[in-house]
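## Example record

The block below lists the input lines for one assembly entry, exactly as stored, with component labels intact.
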Amino acid sequence: MNTPLPPAAPPAAAAPARTNTISVDGQVVAFTPGQTVIQAAHAVGIDVPHYCYHPGLSIAGNCRICMVELEGSGKPQVSCKLPCAEGQKIRTQSPLALEARAGVMEMLLVNHPLDCPICDQAGECHLQEYSFAFGQGASRASTEKTHLPKNVPFGAKVVYDAERCIKCTLCVRFVDEITQTHELAMGGRSDHEIVIMTGKGEFTTPYAMNIIDLCPVGALTSRDFRFKSRLWFMDFTPTLCTGCARGCNVTLGARTGTLMRLEPRFNADVNRWWMCDPGRLGYGHVNSSTRLAAPRLKQKDGTWADVTVEAALTAAGALLREARMSGGGGDVLCDGNLGLEELLLAKDLAAALKGQARFAAAVGTDGDALLIVNEKGANAKGAEALGLARQSAPAPAVVLLVEEDANVGKALRDGSGAKLVFASDAAHVPASAEVVFPLPTFAEKDAWLVNVDGRVQALCASPQAGPQGLSSAVELLDELLTELASPAAGRTLADARAALRALPALAALTWTAVEAPASAEVSA
Amino acid sequence: MTTPARAPAAGRTPETKVLSANFGVPGSWTLPVVRPRGAYQALEKALKTLTPAQVTAEVKTSRLRGRGGAGFPAGVKWGFVPTSSPKTKYVVCNADESEPGTFKDRYLMELDPHLVLEGCLLAAYAVGASVIYIYVRGEYPLSIARLEGAMAEARAAGLLGAKILGSSFSCEAWVHPGAGAYICGEETGMLESLEGKRGHPRIKPPFPAVEGAFASPTLINNVETLAHVPWIVIHGGAAFAKQGIPPDPANPRAVGSSGTKLMGVSGPVRTPGVWEFEFGITLRELVYGYGGGPLPGRTLKAVIPGGLSMPVLTDAELDVKMGFDELAKVGSGLGTACAIVMDDTCDMVKACINIAHFFADESCGQCTPCREGCHWMEKIFKRIDAGQGTPADLDLLASLFGNIEGRTICALADAAVWPLRSILKKFRPEFEARLARPVAVVGAL
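Predicted structure tokens for the full assembly:
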């Protein structure tokens, strides 16, 4: 639960002093005036089931699953909408509350198709979870179910199934309140009520896919992810989106070398519960069929041969020493998505080559007031803080590190004339390259990124995404520093991190997010 | 429309024509006809001699209870409106008369629209409202036309608009036609509809008196409730309170039923219609004495005392007085006081299908128990009707009633459960006789 803890109750003064507390199942629970019962209960970790309630949206009170017993009231009350009042006695587990909850569960399933075996939501479905917890185990509904539209496209990215839908209106409230684009509405009434799309059948907001995460059941599914994998075969990693410099916190789902999906992860200071569709779908380069999995050396006839890391390091060392001897100064051009640790070592490498480290990052025009920012370098702020200059026109460099096409575009790559290239994808290697190392993408490495607000956040490697067993760029750069006999050589990732923390230039950044990453994931 | 004025037969309680005083007068919906008959005298009296608080006090004294069905004391409701609020305040007249079998407000709007408008203006004066909306059921085109005609006449006569009757009180009024949804007669569903949204009832609190139309203080009353106010202002609340059924001193919850009430009868009776009585006549007199009783050769089987949304009473239970507390005491309710009669040709299983279908169709779909439950009940009744029901179905229905009633945002689901449960209870043998041989119906989830 995300709601900040209410302040401790003021010390009891004269007898009638308000304590701003209620009792929930006998436990004294403090509330801030204006909070509802479910909010106060969630804030202290008391679980009250809910479908239509979401802490980031207005309260609808329509699903009725959160009904609790309020002492003195004959009827069960919806705790999501019930304002906390001094001294209220709430029971979430009384016979009345449990009976009301079971009654709602039964109603929700009367016309539900119960098609869990072919439903993408299975495994993270609140209908399943609450059925298991509060349901009746056997159905009393032997009448024909009400049939509603299925497989309805909501634009190109979302698919709607009205029979699975429990009409909680979270999706409608999202486009009304968060994006204010109003592409969805409720249509029809009674058990024929469905979500309908207004306008021209496509979302105008780039945040539409959040409704898939919001949907507590399998009514809204992702065109990109549906039918690709059962959830229980996937591995989930709390990490970051690198689509722009916002640094939205995400959960990365992967399976046997393939990144399956990204979903937003709650962070009150960065992205709250949301992420944009381009970020969510911007993982194609991770699964590219031309990913590099082993170092390569260019042969005399111009063809490439896969070699061992050791052989490649030897060749790269020779290449770099020659560049240093030539006296021209060896510059290093870095992708703006690289982590602070990689950039730190790249900078040291440039120093050892008597050159400069620079970075390149794309700048978009799609920034908005919600999350998307124009700065596309996920760590551009970090690169600047480390003193790297931003490069936007082609310039010579000896070493090139490129994770994806957007930041270090073809013109910069080809214009660098770099002979030593770290690239995630063979398609990004310029013709000038002689030695190539595979570069892990954001999905495959542990790294610190600085977002647009100066917040240092941690990328975490997924054990399942991308080619397996890649050497980290930090390890390889350190080996190269050793090849160059640099005094900076000999550092691990942890050493690099310690050095970064000690850098005065980075002291002004917000480091709390790294200290305490991964706010508890909020159930939507 | 012809008026239902009929000479009372010997021995019948006579009508008391307060609201219906102008019914039957040619052109009673026009200002030149009704002004000489006293229209807007109460408004003039209030604006010239009474403060807004005094008007509210008179309504409190009158013990006038809401005529829309719930019977909440009107003066108390008026007192909830925060008159000191700096926001624009609204009076919304609930004229979305869509309760089945109910057509009393229609008579008022068609035959005496100025009385309705004057009641609205008095309420607006009392609570400090500057805008009146009369939310009229869309299927009432004549009511809409007559109300709009009355508003135009009143505006031209200085009775509506800026500085009414030369006073400092200014108030505008509009007719807002509904689009045919039963749920828009629920006061907060009506507010949503008025604001241009789907008629989805709101969760209370906040109550409309504090946060109603356009998030501003709003007084909502039924047509008939507001139409009583001019008489109360002219004659005083105490005179009104003397009429009808007094409070029961032994029961603090029985606050009595003061004044007169439009009451109606529909269904297979000889003379269906609407009449006006002081509270106190019995349901039997209404159905037999004025409704004329069952058609020749038929016998009376059941009566819903007011609209569709109340528990049924059998012939043996008809000697109850038509009053809020009296009907509650016998397990039913006054509702709209427009009785629906069912005779011996009425198949109670089919009646339940009809009732459940109405509520299933009119459920707004917003909250789970009503959205899913009403249609489920209809399907079960249909199965029983088809001879495929089992004893377990009757138990299932009883369980569903409990899972629907009191579990929803508004009272529509309660209104569906009450008549169905009472019919199933009082006519259970009729249902049992239709059941198929018992078979197991519980399957795996």
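DSSP finds 17 helices and twelve strands in chain B. The radius of gyration of chain B is 22 Å.
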